[in-house]
Amino acid sequence: MNIMLFHSTYGLRPAVRAAADRLRAAGHEVWTPDLFDGRTFETVEEGMAFKDEIGKEELLKRAVLAAAPYSERGLVYAGFSLGAATAQTLALGDGKARGLLLLHGTSDIAPSASVDDLPVQLHVAEPDPFETDDWLTAWYLQMGKAGADVEIYRYAGAGHLYTDPDLPDYDEEAAETTWRVALGFLDGL
């Protein structure tokens, strides 16, 4: 698979590069665009402030420009938290998208969004302060209405970005389960 993997609000950190390497080792081609121009952050608040400084439209433009040279290949869009939201937006707008792998995040869905049985897999903490139960229920229903084939995996007691070993949220067991399931998902596309 050809995978476009977007980083979280922390920026393009070692955990994102390690995830890309894990995917490459499984036989996938992976791109990890740096939407923050080399900047990384120690806290969510710092990263969100920088994201707000860039602006949502500019961030999305950077993501589209990063994906455009490869979209004809039929990309799987993937991302971590903020990057998952970005991946979701691009996948729902790309008629050639092969799949959507969301780690720790989702995004609003345009009422006009429509896909043809797009395979979607979401991995998220339970509970997650950014992905509440009510939000996820509504999101799931809207994705189904848009035509996506959605699987959701919840990880009780894990922190929001539980796959990043350099953050306090890290949960080794949940992270390894996530990667095992996600690799199976990608192999099935």
From TrEMBL:
The keyword Hydrolase applies. Pfam families: DLH. One of its GO terms (molecular function) is hydrolase activity. SUPFAM superfamilies: alpha/beta-Hydrolases. Residues 3-186 form the Dienelactone hydrolase domain. The keyword Hydrolase applies. Keywords: Hydrolase. This is Dienelactone hydrolase family protein. It comes from Streptomyces chiangmaiensis.
